[in-house]
């Protein structure tokens, strides 16, 4: 992965006591810590002009802006890792550490087995159960980071965000939160149209045979 753009870890040499607890929370839809402004591509200017910044902000979609913020947040996490972790050495296990770290910024109440509201979608009173990142937010986050990794030179077969351990973890979070919150994350199946009555089926078959006979006569 020589072509993979690495996050700069040299910024931590001046403050060796910095750790991941120093990150602050942001106001994005997914409760992520505040990222540092890292470029997404090596060709990005280090100090863009105000006109360039305005044009980029208006042309980028909401998805692209969110993907940039998520990528920068993950880069900050790698820099604050002890020891600092290079992106080329990042594995699925490190991605799982990142996801568990994000739970401290979660806003979704996940009831424990001992909670009287376990399995209730609308609990009637507050409870001391912990707040976690919702499964849907984590699933969308991994999708954006997986795309950003390959956009920055990473090989698809070496993408840590697509590791099997990450997929299994997301599935476990989905199932556990579905039970704890009393909701279902299953995709709705498309309803098949009801079968036609025998009379209509016979009429369609008859009309089809008549049209084919007319075509033969014209031939």
TrEMBL record:
Entry's Gene Ontology cellular component terms: nucleus
Alphabetical UniProt keywords: Developmental protein, DNA-binding, Nucleus, Transcription, Transcription regulation
Top-level taxon: Eukaryota
UniProt feature, compositional bias: Low complexity: 9-33, 43-61
Entry-linked Pfam families: ALOG_dom (PF04852)
Region of interest (Disordered), residue spans: 1-65, 179-212
Main location: nucleus
PANTHER family: PROTEIN G1-LIKE2, PROTEIN LIGHT-DEPENDENT SHORT HYPOCOTYLS 4
Family: Belongs to the plant homeotic and developmental regulators ALOG protein family.
Designated name of the protein: ALOG domain-containing protein
Originating species: Crotalaria pallida (Smooth rattlebox)
